[in-house]
Amino acid sequence: MISTAPPGPRSSPESTTVPGPAGWRDRVAGAVRRDEVTIRFDRRQAATAAAVYLGVAAIGFTLLMVITRHMGYPAGHVLRRWDSGNYLAIARYGYPQRLAFRPDGTPVWSTLAFFPLVPALIRTVHLTGLSFPVAGVVVSWAAATVAAAGVHTLVGSIAGRRVGYACVGLWAASPYAFALWVPYSEGCFTAALVWALIAVVARRWVAAGALTALAGAMRPTASVLLGVMVVCAGWALLRRRDGWRPWAGLALAPTGLLFSWLYIGAQVGRLDGWFEAEKAWGQSFDFGLGTAHFLKLVTLYRRDADIRYGAVLILILLVACGVLALALDRRVPWAMVLALAGAWALMVGTPGSPLSKPRFMLPFLPIMLLLLARPVSRLPRVVQGCLYGCGAVFAGWYAVGLLMLFRWSP
Length: 410
Known about the structure:
Strand order of the largest sheet: 1-2
Number of helices: 19
Pathway: Glycolipid biosynthesis; glycosylphosphatidylinositol-anchor biosynthesis
Membrane topology: Multi-pass membrane protein
Number of domains: 1
Distance between the termini: 40 Å
Low-confidence stretches: 9-20
Helix content: 55-70%
Radius of gyration: 22 Å
Structural class: mainly alpha
Mean pLDDT: 91
Largest sheet: 2 strands, antiparallel
GO molecular function, one term: GPI mannosyltransferase activity
Oligomer: single chain
Order of helices and strands: EHEHHHHHHHHHHHHHHHHHH
Number of strands: 2
Keywords: Endoplasmic reticulum, Glycosyltransferase, GPI-anchor biosynthesis, Membrane, Transferase, Transmembrane, Transmembrane helix
GO cellular component, one term: membrane
């Protein structure tokens, strides 16, 4: 087992400390102090967590493919639905060389809104001889497995190994887990996010900055992780801890986002290429006005009945409660609380794709599931297995509707 404890302050045996009144830094530190967390990575436990994830995910994915085959959909068609088709198109053909606009001047939906690293990984795996859809599945499953090991390492270090396993099982069986099975970016982003949070909690700032940069080449939601990095590394600098390493981490952290924006902009010959393309998806930050309008229509039943509307409403409320509960728990590091709070703010603050908001929260879901994993971990193993299995069956069945039947992108 590898223990990654935060580096302690250097001291000299000849130095003496003169007691004095507490400064403002010490008073603030006392108000926000959390219990110390030592990150412990155990290879055997990480492998077990990966096996738990793979077992649960296999049930859901198998059910998805069996039902869709029975309905007459070829596997290749299922694996190219919605965002999968965009990532696979970039992997195969690259990005468009120009922005297209509608007569009213608004941009047309295009693959320019998708970041480059996941398509690059798919293309790399494709070079082994696999088809693009299968290569995309391999990338998603491999990344989600790495993410599961990270979830157990992070949660297990805080609450114990059994809670870590429970958190992995609950995440694998969550209703929108289909995004971890097909060629979407959620699996890759979750892996980078979770391991970056581990590095932040362990105060390994260079690794945290590098992983934040990696996440920034996958999804724009890496801005949440960047914010966490700025706050936590900035706090370390304010406390005069860890020397030059927080500076190095802060320098590395934004490079992934900057690279993605500049690379996509270079494809169309304008620096704001990605931002212009993103307008077609309605993802500009409006401080919650669009979400409030959507919720008004839903709560007053001014839209056609759709099970997903209820899921969005419940998710917004539950995540807000989860942020508050975790903030009041001194055992949970602030980095995790900030990540979940930032994800909630981004989910509520952007109006576009309201029915995709549960999927956008999937990488951050293990943080909130820590609250549920504690009581679940105390259940008998047979009961836990039934719970994860039933969740996987529901996720597989629900994925059929999300991918093949329901209107609009999940």
